[in-house]
Specification:
The complex is a heterodimer of chains A (196) and B (305). Chain A has five helices and eight strands; from the N terminus they run αβββααββαββαβ. By secondary structure, chain A is of the alpha+beta class. Chain A starts with 5 loop residues before the first helix and ends in a 5-residue tail after the last strand. The chains are: A alpha+beta (196), B alpha+beta (305).
Chain lengths: 196, 305
C-alpha cells in the first residue's frame, strides 16, 4: 500500500480533475491525429505485370516488400491496376482486384495433385511423377492417333487425338514456343484465349 | 481533369473537443467522390479493392436471393453494393447504391462522439475514425444519419470507410475510385465533382430520366461522397434518406450534461484555489501533532477530522 497523506490525496485529485477539465476544453489535443498511418506501399518495389485471369489482359502493378536478400523472402503487399496500360487505365474488375491472393493465399496449391482413375481423393505428388505421367500419356495418345498418310495417300504427319488449349497469361513469346513445340508433335488443334 | 495535389491532412474538427483545432497550414482542396449510378454495372470491383487495400477480413457470403454479396455492412466490410429491384411503370428497374461512409460536411458521428480525438474531420472533407482513441460507446452509430459505422464485437471499437485517407494524403485516389472499370466513380475537388455531376444529370435528363438528380443532401452540409441518381423521385427505394440531418437529437442533451458537469468541477477547483489563496495552507498545530504528547485523544487523526 502506497503511503499517501491526506494532503497528497487532495493534490492528486485536484491535478487529475484539472487535467480532465483542460482536456475537455481541447488543450493538448492539437497533435492528436495530425500524423496519419502512412502509406503501406510507399517503400515497396513496383513490378509491372499482367492480370492472368481473362483475355482482356489488364496491366497491373504488384507492390512487393522485402530487400531481396539471400536470407529473406519477399512478399506481395498490394496489387492494383497499372494506369499506363492502354487496356485498363488503372482499373480492375473484382477478380483482378483480388489477384494478390494468387501469390499470398495460404490455401493456394503449390504443387501438382493426382487423382488416379476411379479414385475419389486427390493425392499430392512430386513434379517428377507428374511430368513423367504427363509425358507418358502424351506419347501414348500421340502414337495411337498419329496419321502419316490420309485416305488419298498424301503425306500429312498429323496427330488428331490431342488438342492444346493455352492460357490468358500466354504472351507472344510463349505462344510462339507453344505453337512450334506442338506443331512439331503434329498437333493441329491449338488455341488459346489470350490476346495480350 | 485538373491536377490533384496531395492533401496536407490539416484537421478541421475533433470529436468531444469544442476547440476546432485551427490549423496554421493553408487549407488544401476539398475532395469528393462522385458515384454515377447510371454507369455502374454492379461488378463490385470497388468492394474487393476496398477489402484488399484496407486489409479487411474476408467474410463468408451466402446467396439470399440477390446479386448483393453481403447482407449488411460490418466492421470488416466498409463498402457494400446494395441492389434493389423495383417496378416502375411496368418496367423492371435495377437500383444500385454504393453503401459506404458519405463523409458529411456536418458529421453526425463526430458530433455524437464523447471520446476526444476518436473521430476527426480533415480540411479535405474526410471524416476519419481513430480506433486508438475509440472507447466503443457506439454513440457515433446513433448519430449517423446514413447508418454506416459498425461495431466490432471482437475489438469493441467502431469502424467505417476512411476514404483511403492514407492514399489521399499522398495524392492518390481512394482504392474504389481507381479500380472502377466503368468510370462510374470519379474523384476530384468538390467543386469539380459538383460541376461534373450537373453535366451528368443533364445528359440523363436528355436520355429520358426526367427525375435525375445529384444527391448531396444539404441537411448534413453536403457530403464528400455524392451520387448521380437516375430516379431522383425514388430515393427511398435506393435506401437513401430524403432529408438526413446531423442533429444529434437526444445526444445534444448528453453533450450539454457533460459541459455542465465539467463546469461544476471547474467551479469546485476554482473555489479550492481561491480558498488556498485566501487562507493559505493549513498549518497543523505543533503542540497537538507532537507524537510525544501524553494527552490522550489529541493525535494527528483527531486533529484532522
Amino acid at each position: 500500500m502506497v503511503d499517501i497523506s491526506r494532503r497528497d490525496l487532495f493534490k492528486i485529485t485536484g491535478l487529475t480533475g484539472g487535467g480532465l477539465l483542460a482536456s475537455s476544453l481541447g488543450f493538448d489535443l492539437k497533435p492528436v491525429y495530425a500524423a496519419s498511418r502512412g502509406l503501406k506501399i510507399s517503400n515497396a518495389k513496383e513490378f509491372k505485370t499482367v492480370c492472368p485471369y481473362c483475355a482482356v489482359g489488364c496491366g497491373t502493378i504488384a507492390y512487393v516488400h522485402g530487400s531481396g536478400g539471400l536470407n529473406t523472402v519477399n512478399a506481395v503487399v498490394h496489387v492494383e491496376g497499372d494506369p499506363d496500360s492502354p487496356i485498363n487505365g488503372g482499373t480492375l474488375c473484382p477478380k483482378g482486384a483480388s489477384q494478390m491472393a494468387l501469390a499470398m493465399n495460404p490455401r493456394l496449391e503449390k504443387g501438382p495433385k493426382y487423382r488416379a482413375a476411379n479414385a475419389t481423393e486427390w493425392q499430392d505428388v512430386d513434379w517428377d511423377f507428374a511430368l513423367d505421367w504427363l509425358a507418358r500419356k502424351f506419347k501414348d495418345a500421340r502414337d495411337e492417333t498419329f496419321v502419316e498418310r490420309d485416305e488419298q495417300g498424301r503425306t500429312v504427319n498429323r496427330c488428331e487425338g490431342i488438342g492444346w488449349v493455352g492460357s490468358a497469361t500466354v504472351n507472344n513469346e510463349d505462344a510462339y514456343f507453344i505453337t512450334k513445340t506442338m506443331r512439331s508433335m503434329g498437333l493441329m488443334y491449338i488455341d488459346h484465349q489470350a490476346r495480350i | 481533369m485538373p491536377q490533384l495535389p496531395g492533401s496536407s491532412l490539416a484537421v478541421k474538427r475533433i470529436s468531444a473537443s469544442p476547440d476546432p483545432a485551427p490549423s496554421i497550414r493553408t487549407a488544401g482542396p476539398e475532395f469528393a467522390k462522385l458515384i454515377d449510378i447510371s454507369r455502374c454495372i454492379g461488378c463490385k470491383g470497388c468492394e474487393v479493392a476496398c477489402k484488399e487495400w484496407n486489409e479487411l477480413k474476408i467474410e463468408p457470403t451466402r446467396n439470399f436471393g440477390s446479386f448483393q454479396s453481403h447482407q449488411d455492412l460490418s466492421a470488416d466490410t466498409w463498402l457494400l453494393m446494395r441492389f434493389t429491384e423495383i417496378e416502375v411503370d411496368g418496367d423492371l428497374q435495377w437500383l444500385i447504391k454504393k453503401d459506404a461512409c458519405m463523409h458529411c460536411e456536418e458529421p453526425g458521428c463526430l458530433y455524437a462522439c464523447p471520446a476526444p480525438g476518436a473521430i476527426v474531420q480533415y480540411e479535405n472533407g474526410i471524416v476519419d475514425f481513430n480506433p486508438d482513441k475509440c472507447i466503443g460507446c457506439q454513440l457515433c452509430i446513433s448519430g449517423c444519419p446514413f447508418d454506416v459505422p459498425r461495431f466490432s464485437a471482437e475489438t469493441h471499437k467502431v469502424y467505417k470507410c476512411n476514404m483511403c485517407v492514407d492514399r489521399v494524403e499522398v495524392g492518390l485516389e481512394p482504392a474504389c475510385v481507381k479500380t472502377c472499370p466503368t468510370n462510374a466513380i470519379t474523384w476530384g475537388t468538390k467543386d469539380d465533382m459538383v460541376a461534373l455531376a450537373e453535366q451528368k444529370v443533364d445528359r440523363l435528363k436528355d436520355r429520358g430520366f426526367e427525375n435525375a438528380t445529384l444527391y448531396d443532401p444539404a441537411g448534413v452540409g453536403g457530403t464528400h461522397m455524392m451520387y448521380v441518381v437516375p430516379h431522383g423521385d425514388r430515393l427511398v427505394d435506393y435506401d437513401l434518406p430524403e432529408d438526413p440531418t446531423a442533429a444529434p437529437g437526444a445526444l445534444a442533451a448528453l453533450a450539454g450534461l457533460k459541459q455542465l458537469g465539467m463546469g461544476v468541477m471547474g467551479l469546485g477547483l476554482l473555489g479550492t484555489a481561491l480558498h488556498y489563496l485566501k487562507y493559505g495552507p493549513e498549518v497543523a498545530d505543533e503542540e497537538a501533532s507532537d507524537p510525544a504528547s501524553p494527552e490522550p485523544g489529541s493525535g494527528p487523526d483527531a486533529e484532522n477530522t
